């Protein structure tokens, strides 16, 4: 098997296997074929990873920021040099079209390594003058061993978005990929070692939720960064709270995308397509509730349907294909259940809605119109290619409806009126907002959610604060007077 790794885990600079662990079958979503067989980590493997990370972290933190940054930037170059090979792997692991993985996965991961590599040496503290010549200094210190737990939609990108800031700050990371997409994190571990990272600074252990839970509960772990669903986030956050650990939670959403009648129609249709059907809709920040102002609703739906007819669905390794399968049979079934629910609750199916009669987990891009706020498809995260179009009349009304959700990951507005665009963006209850665009997530800008969609931010300088703890050192240059 071409994509079979040397072994399941990567610990202390080496591939490690233990056949005693539960089997993990890696499936190519385009065909349903098995492309690799791995094993979940046994308690002994998890222990090995923890011990290795604990030792490595101290050596790594003793390096200067410049040295750490150089290694991260070298790893970025290695990923870039291997971009095609890694994209091919990611396409086989996730089913996402090669035209997407070539630009959005390993390359975005390389951006993160380069960006945080560049910032590593800038992690300095402050001098704080106090009374009578006394002063305090602050020292940003690494947290120690951090655990990263990934979802299956952007496997190597998620691994890099967590590892890069963690390592830049002098932490070690143990990464547990989703068992659906376990392969590419191993390649990141290889790249980091080749770039000169000390062995053990980035370890990968495979497994199901129980392996993640064991790592989160271990007293040697100082921080947990999870990308996953809200229910998993709740469990992981609660477990981390037991040990008062730091957390970053990148969770799900049901984001609104508002199209006013003065918006450029082509751009707003593009925004709705990008915000619903990229990666077959399996993107956390997708604007799946598309609120369209009454006057342009018919025109919007017509243009949307005619453009969706040009989606090229097929073999994701074909460079012309821009719409691939769903990641797994399980996820396909979940999405199909939501489509059935939409129909049953009275939404009008205007495009797609069917599984394709071919091997693999293919589902058409699907659009429902006449969706109301109470319908299940307008309330719950589907995580598949299902767009709900809802009608609105006034700005005040649509803001209230857009915010009437427990999620708060992202939100977007399309309008030709700049003042209105800013007014609406300010009122959105969401961590990441867009004006006349959707779903951009460059490493330079903070990304993350409010409300149930998460805690903390990834990307940008802010991410560094989530991987350090500030030590304050007070210094007195005066004699000390005690009461007795
Ligand atoms: P899950 O929540 O099912 O799983 C996420 C990860 O957590 C997996 O690796 C999973 O392992 C692991 N896990 C499960 N239970 C536990 C536990 N008790 N303790 C520790 N780890 C555990 O999410 P999916 O993988 O299905 O990914 C889809 C979700 O991720 C969507 O909700 C999506 O919105 C969200 N997401 C958020 C992003 C963001 O940046 N905000 C970006 C991408 C996705 P296992 O797979 O073995 O169960």
UniProtKB/TrEMBL annotation:
Its EC number is 1.2.1.8. Keywords: Metal-binding, NAD, Oxidation, Oxidoreductase, Potassium. It comes from the Bacteria. GO terms for molecular function: betaine-aldehyde dehydrogenase (NAD+) activity; metal ion binding. SUPFAM superfamilies: ALDH-like. Belongs to the aldehyde dehydrogenase family. This is Betaine-aldehyde dehydrogenase. It comes from Mesorhizobium amorphae CCNWGS0123.
């Amino acid at each position: 098997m071409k994509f079979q790794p040397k072994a399941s885990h990567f610990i202390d600079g080496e591939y490690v296997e233990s056949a005693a662990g539960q089997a993990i079958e890696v499936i190519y979503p385009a065909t349903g074929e098995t492309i690799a067989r791995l094993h979940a980590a046994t308690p002994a493997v998890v222990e090995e990873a923890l011990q290795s990370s604990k030792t490595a972290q101290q050596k790594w933190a003793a390096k200067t920021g410049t040295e750490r940054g150089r290694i991260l930037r070298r790893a970025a170059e290695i990923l870039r040099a291997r971009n095609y090979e890694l994209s091919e792997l990611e396409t086989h692991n996730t089913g996402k079209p090669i035209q997407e993985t070539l630009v959005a996965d390993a390359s975005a991961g390389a951006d993160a390594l380069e960006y945080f590599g560049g910032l590593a040496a800038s992690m300095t503290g402050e001098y704080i003058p106090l009374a009578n010549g006394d002063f305090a200094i602050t020292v940003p210190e690494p947290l120690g061993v951090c655990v990263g737990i990934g979802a299956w939609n952007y496997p190597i990108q998620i691994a890099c978005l967590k590892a890069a800031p963690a390592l830049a700050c002098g932490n070690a990371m143990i990464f547990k990929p989703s068992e659906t997409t376990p392969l590419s994190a191993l390649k990141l571990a290889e790249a980091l070692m080749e770039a000169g990272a000390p062995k053990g600074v980035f370890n990968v252990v495979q497994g199901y939720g129980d392996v993640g839970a064991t790592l989160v509960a271990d007293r040697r772990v100082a921080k947990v960064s999870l990308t996953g669903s809200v229910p998993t986030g709740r469990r992981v956050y609660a477990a981390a709270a037991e040990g008062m650990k730091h957390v970053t939670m990148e969770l799900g959403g049901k984001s609104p995308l508002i199209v006013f009648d003065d918006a450029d129609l082509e751009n707003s249709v593009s925004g709705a397509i990008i915000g619903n059907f990229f990666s077959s809709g399996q993107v956390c920040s997708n604007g799946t509730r598309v609120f369209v102002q009454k006057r342009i609703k018919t025109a919007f739906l017509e243009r949307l349907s005619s453009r969706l007819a040009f989606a090229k669905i097929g073999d994701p390794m074909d460079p012309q294909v821009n719409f691939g399968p769903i990641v797994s049979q399980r996820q396909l079934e979940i999405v199909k259940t939501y489509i059935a629910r939409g129909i049953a609750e009275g939404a009008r199916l205007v495009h797609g809605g069917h599984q394709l009669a071919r091997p693999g987990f293919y589902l058409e891009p699907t659009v429902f119109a006449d969706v109301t706020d109470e319908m299940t498809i307008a309330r719950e995260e589907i995580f598949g290619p299902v767009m709900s179009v809802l009608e609105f009349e006034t700005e005040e009304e649509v803001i209230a409806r857009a915010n009437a959700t427990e999620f708060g990951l992202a939100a977007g507005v399309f309008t030709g009126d700049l003042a209105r665009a800013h007014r609406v963006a300010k009122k959105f209850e969401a961590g990441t907002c867009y004006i006349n665009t959707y779903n951009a997530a460059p490493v330079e800008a903070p990304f993350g959610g409010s409300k149930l969609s998460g805690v903390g931010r990834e990307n940008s300088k802010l991410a560094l604060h989530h991987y350090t703890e500030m030590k304050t050192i007070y210094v007195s240059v005066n004699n000390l007077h005690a009461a007795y």
